[in-house]
Design goal:
Number of domains: 2
Helix content: 40-55%
Largest sheet: 2 strands, parallel
Distance between the termini: 53 Å
Shape: elongated
Strand content: 5-15%
Radius of gyration: 20 Å
Strand order of the largest sheet: 1-2
Structural class: mainly alpha
Number of helices: 5
Length: 119
Amino acid sequence: MSDKVKLTKAQAESLADASKYNDTEKMVRIHMDVPVSKAWMRGSVHLNEITLDTLIRALYIGYEVEMTPEEKIFEIYKTGYARNGFGEEDIAFREGIALALHTFGIKAEGVHTLPDMDE
């Protein structure tokens, strides 16, 4: 059970914000003493989304930022691009990803978009 916890990008940013103003023990006490929905405000508001156990593990063991589905797709998109160079296979790979995203109405930053095929 010594694995790092996964936090969303917003939760990680909230943890960093709260860490600027509080030491580790104070952060745990705040999270314990105040009802979770009201414990954190302003730049730390996303800490309200995590359990006490998750907060403690993030503070003492560490955490990884969980990528959004769009970020994961962009990583695959970049990997395909780097793996195959600039050949036809690479173009087809990238266009396949773009077509799949377009089909489901998903926009992923860094992945080129296709024109509407209905027009």
